Amino acid sequence: MEVISAAHVSRFVGSPFEQRGGLFIVAPPGHIKSTIIKEALLLYADTLILSDLNVAQLAHLKSALISGRYSTLGFGEFEKLYERNPGSAANLEGHLRALVEEGFDKMSFDSQQMIGVTARVLLVGGITPNAYARRWQAWLDSGFARRFIWCHYRLADEELIVDAIRKWKKISFGKVSSAIPANKDIPYTVKAVDARVLEKMLDNQPSKETPYTLLKKIFCVLVWRYGRKRAFAILHDFSESLGRTGTNLYL
Q: What is the pLDDT of residues 79-116, one digit of tens each?
């Protein structure tokens, strides 16, 4: 949650790289993916949490994305986007792929001769391992996969949610910072030695370019909020979910 929150605020980090990228949380059904995303992002007025989306709805959102009204899109169950005509889903995926990297200013049905302002957003999605496995090769082939950090986990105690219901008490996730700089500027504070450590965390990811850019910006936000020591502690803990076997989540 700290990493997702910092990723949203990463747009304020000074950088020559404009792409936003994003994160995907891969976990089994009922393992609180949607809850984690909502708890991390609902603190901000410029985030939009969606249960589903199609091309027509994205067209209506275009002006809000270009104006900066929404700078992050969150999907608790990203696989729902594919529960429609495969051609329509592929078209939507292409627009989202552009939104997180090179940006987009026109829908496919708009005149390509129009002049427009480019919109870019951060995308955060939750997806089950089965849906992830079904889509993975297509995502590699299209370049979709390389634009995101992929985090895999499972709850260490699968009875945790049932136990909370039994006790009639919601699980507490603690407090996550939602601090934003008043001057809309967060300094770039990654030292050369820091950069190598951060790059190593992405060794098992499908690509390092956009994810590496995002991870460095996340680090800068965490340093701005908590200092270098705690920033590294948070990212070392988080990096366990980036490996080949994922990690257990203890609550």
A: 999 988 878 888 899 999 999 998 876 555 555 555 56
Q: Where are the beta strands (DSSP E) in 135-214?
A: 148-155
Domains belonging to the chain, first-starting first, are 2-249 (3.40.50)
pTM: 0.93
Phi, psi angles (nearest 5°) of residue 181: -65, 135
φ, ψ at 134 (rounded to 5°): -65, -35
Q: Contact, 153 vs 31, CB < 8 A?
A: yes
Exposure string for 159-186, b = 16+ CB within 10 A, e = fewer: ebbeeeeeeeeeeeeeeebeeeeeeeeb
CA atoms within 13 A on the CB side of 120: 14
- Share the mean pLDDT of the chain: 92
What is d(CA 30, CA 53) in angstroms, rounded to the nearest whole number? Answer: 22
